[in-house]
Amino acid sequence: QPLHLSGHHHSISALSFGSKINPLLVCSASRERVVVWNLDECTQKVQEGLTPRGTVIGTLLGMVLHVKFSPDDRQVAVCAGNRIYVLSAKEEAILAELDGHLAPVTAAEFCTQEKSMLISVSEDRTFKARKVWDCSSGQLIYQSGVLTAFPLLSLLIDEENKQIITGSAEGQLWIFSLISDHNYRCVAHINLKKEQEKFRNKVWKSGKETGSEGQNTSKLCKTNNMRPEGSVETSLPILLIEHCDFSVCFHKEENTSSALNTSYFWIGSSTGFLIINLANFELEAFLSYKDYSDLSIRFARSCALARKAVNGKVLCLIASMFEDMIAVLEVNLAALVRTQQSDFLCGNKNSLSVIASSYFFPFLSNHYFRVIGHKRVKSMVKDQPLVFHNKIKSSGYTAAPQMAMFSPNNVKKNELSKWKTSCKRTNKEYPLESSPPIKYEKEISVTCKPTPICCIQYSGDGEMLACGLADKTVLVFNSNLTDTYNVFSGHDGAINSVGWSHDKKWLVSASEDRTLRVWSVCNNEPVLILGKEKFCKTVRFAQFYFIDAFILLCCGAEFHLLSFHLDTTKDDLKRYKQRSVCKLVQKFPMASTMEITSLSAVNDFYSYIVLTAGSNRALEVFDLNAGCSTAVIPEVHTRSVHQICQNKGSSFSTQQPEAYNLFMTTAVGDGIKLWDLRTLR
């Protein structure tokens, strides 16, 4: 039977459970009083036939919007009007009275690292502020600037990552660092409305492309990008921020290495619940109230979540905004995430795969150019008549029609069959029955004086070898090292990386001089030069990608995806003008790292997977089909990974497809580790 506790004469405006289980306390607040209840004692009195009574700890404080126990349950922070009262949980005593906010205080949290520290957020008229207080003296330690034009409604202190998370009435989320040396700097700013729309489009497009719409995708997939006629756009107030028990829900699932080491949290809003990944600040799942016909509540006034999952399920309590009605939801977190994300994991619903499911690149289908074979042709935008409807749409003057970046029709069937035959004939596979090589066949000196060799790279067929030297040159040899095929000079710094194109016609090099150059193997002049103005930091690695359709390079803590068109013809009047063009498609930042130390992707066949390793010793897997990070493996080695080695042989060779999902990582002093991309172990 429910336990009825009566002691207030006005409506209860705030409620909070204590931090400890024994005894389990509850604090309730109304306009006229604040009461603390011991649930164990109240239950015992009810069993004895007596009326349970609580301890009044505050009276006539005003309209209370929020109450919160301290970590030891000895104090209660009461947000009443523009002030915060720190009350004793055992008797009616005001320990501290904190003012300074210019509008009603909406939330306050105690910091467990420092018991006397209290963090609060407020409406502050239309300008909202976040303040940190020292309860012992009532002194203001820090006050933030204006974050938004909308009230701050919710607050959470992430003790594990030492961060403050706060949300506004318009769906804006801010994350600040609690580390003492960081001075409460902003770590991330997330627009949940945009992230929610992006997530809707991604799930909807994946369901449409795979033909699985209506079968294994949620109702979220069916949501159209355009709002129906006559509908009203609603705001997304953040009512609740709570830790998500992600690892417990997935303790029996595969591919959970990243989930066990990554923090997730719930976002409760008036229209649904969202799950945010703290590693990449992306939306993992979204649950909308209106998608469920059995739920009569469409807009919530307040919501609450169980902190722990039971049998993989989380209990959610929501209260209606317009009616006197509450509802309890039981959410199967594993099923929710799997249903919404299984369709855009490289075409494989169970795990990641290096081999792409098709020649299409859906993530890049909205860019204003297309690739035919290996040439870039810009799409011409034709004038279209302007037609007025009830809802005015774009006439098409400023946008190009969407098209697929890669189509199987780009390669003729007879050419494709010839290419398959040539791959089978030219590719040399190491015989499995032979012992590993232990003796070198030949030794050659590349320069007259001692010069470090910074990088080496074999061509795809193993017939050519490129070397990048510290003396600013690139050398190309035959694989038997009998003769120097060509010498490329022009960089002003040591060569960091060299990479071959799939057809062996081009060579890409990156240098310490913050430039990238593409060379014709038959000529010693660069065909394409990207200067220092393109990159803020040194380019550490560069390679061709997606069968020479793109160039990947890493610069600082992010890697760039570039589209390009190479033109070797020259104009006699403008012979020094570069006719080759290059365009930045997308930047992909690696989470929580200062610099990317290694990058690897397959160019010999179509693959969406890009592997990166950072100075934080973590390895991150990016799926360019979905356009986001899909997995993070922290502390891969005891030191930073300096090389990632994938099986980059032809996809038409005799190897099993499973062999392409294996890769190795190496670190100085920590040996070599072999990983399986499907299990990330």
Radius of gyration, whole Å: 30 Å
Unreliable stretches, pLDDT < 50, 5 or more residues?
Answer: 126-130, 212-226, 251-258, 343-351, 362-384, 386-413, 423-427
Number of helices: 6
CATH homologous superfamily (4th level) name of the domain at 1-146? YVTN repeat-like/Quinoprotein amine dehydrogenase
- CATH architecture descriptor of the domain at 1-146: 7 Propeller
**What percentage of the residues does DSSP assign to strands (E)?**
35-45%
Structural class determined from secondary elements? mainly beta
WD repeats: 5-40, 488-529
Pfam families: WD40
Keywords: WD repeat
Biased composition (Polar residues): 212-226
Walkthrough of the structure:
With 681 residues, the chain is mainly β. Among the domains are: 1-146, YVTN repeat-like/Quinoprotein amine dehydrogenase (Methylamine Dehydrogenase, Chain H, 7 Propeller), CATH 2.130.10.10; 192-202 and 232-249 and 262-340, no CATH class. Helix content is 9%, strand content 39%. The chain contains six helices and 44 strands. The chain has a four-stranded antiparallel sheet with strand order 1-2-3-4. Strand 2 (25-30) and strand 3 (33-38) form a beta hairpin. The longest helix is centred in the first third of the chain and has 19 residues, at 192-210. The protein starts with 11 loop residues before the first strand and ends in a 5-residue tail after the last strand.
Give a short summary of the structure:
Keywords: WD repeat. The chain is mainly β.
